[in-house]
Amino acid sequence: MRKKVWGAIAVAVAAVAVFASSQQSLALWSDSASASGGTATAASVNLTVGTSAGTSAAYTLANLTTATTPVVPGNTVQAPLTVKNSGSDPLQWRMQSTSALPGFTLTTYGVANEGACPAGVNTAAPAVTPVTSGSMNASLQYPVSPAYMPTPLAAGGTYILCMRLTVVVGAVSGQTTNATFTFQAGAA
Question: Which of 4, 58, 61, 166 could serve as 105's disulfide partner, Cβ 3.0–4.6 Å?
């Protein structure tokens, strides 16, 4: 009988020890604190392309209009386009053509400044490797993969694209054309 009593006491002491230790562990895992009032400011994502700004905007590159200087197959029309991060946080961005231009090929270059992309008809192409090139018969996306530029654009930073359209055989004679692109931005 004595063994049973001491056994029951030992079990009770063990149960109290387990319960007390679990309560102690819970006390170590929870905490609370108070803070005085303050101001929280959210960062902003804002992409400016030419005169368009926002996180998504359509932009027509007027300098690629072929109405003022007629072009024929084999001619090129080129102009620079500055993409700027006008927000306070780094951002990712991408460009997509939103209008099909049958008879034209678009080649884009990343250049150091607008002077490296002389605007006009039959001007010299930039002396850098193109970042993308393709027929404008359908929508083009830049970059193709990954979905956004691989390097985020820092707050206040700029990226200059040199947009170069080449007139190919089969372009519609007498056609006036504007190239329209959609730019999208997201937090990096």
Answer: 166
